[in-house]
Write a structure and sequence with these properties.
The chain is an alpha+beta fold. Helices cover 49% and strands 15% of the residues. The chain has 13 helices and seven strands. A seven-stranded mixed sheet has the order 5-6-2-1-3-4-7. Strand 3 and strand 4 form a beta hairpin. Helix 5 packs parallel to helix 9, helix 6 packs antiparallel against helix 9 and helix 9 packs parallel to helix 11. The chain is globular. The mean pLDDT is 95.
Length: 371
Amino acid sequence: MKDLVQAARDIGELVEAHADKAERNRRLSRRVVDALRDAQLLRMCVPAVYGGPEADPVSMIRAIEAVSMADGAAGWITMIASTTSSLSLFLPGEWAEKIYADRRTISCGVVAPNGTATPADGGWLVDGRWMWGSGIHHCQWVTGGVVTDDGEHHVMFFEAQDVTIHDTWHTSGLRGTGSNDFSVFQAFVPTGRSVRLGRRGDLDCPLAAFPSFTLLAIGIAAVSLGIARRAIDEFVEVAVEKHPQYSQRTIAQMGTAQTDLAKAEAAVRSARAFLVDEVDDAWQTICEGREVGLDARVRIRLAGANAAEAAAQAVNSVYTMGGGTSVFESSQLQRCLRDVHVATQHIMVAPRLYETLGKSFFGTDVDSRML
């Protein structure tokens, strides 16, 4: 799926040009959203049967990473919208067609079951409030996790006009994502316009067999890697020109900076290679008609958590080496620092995940529902 990756690279200049505006407005500019949408970068998981790209996971990583290099917030929206579009693989065909056959459709939402669904004639009435509605200002469809009357965890699809957006997104980083809280009150969701978590849909394609939570985790890791790549490249540009105060040498001529840069490069490149290698192995397993087992899912999730952590450490390093230059709003290094540390807080890559994964390596039973 090289076309998607190339498309992500091609719009990088536009994305970067609007990044400051996104920071100020706390949401992406309309021009950037339109460019991402037209390139199908906001629906990468929609299957071909509904006219979607049906991207393989490695191509998704590369495309998300490329957008994130231009602007972490735009990369995050690319990741959220595309992973949300993976629900098209599990919706009943009638609703998947209605929602996702239109190439202009953008969806976002939250899986966490913060809502309740009460049976109603022909469907449910839903009440709830959710955090982290990334990109919600640009979406026609918004999803929210709920618990139904019989205790099942569903992800419901709401029409945008049924959703109330709450202005809560005042943050240190990823400001341009517009990840506000949102709520619904007595929103009617007809039968079929939801996905029950843990249940496979009727669609038979490789992407439908790829673990859903794993797909989200690798997307977050890809955003982090893109931010780190941008930070390293920005630092190199600064370092070859800047003479620290009282020094006749540029930063690039200093042995400590050379050593730290090499370590940052090694950390990011090796973390990326680990992630791509594990995801590619899992994808080949699926394409051969076999299931991705728990051990493989654990390794992918470890690779994702490691990538987010390595990216954050690399950004920390180059930010520090940048000295006083790094602290100004005009420096990309400070934005990369803020953005990458918001990404690491996501539950799919958060440090506490290591404990769960470590249990698996010891042969201890783990809760695999989120892997």
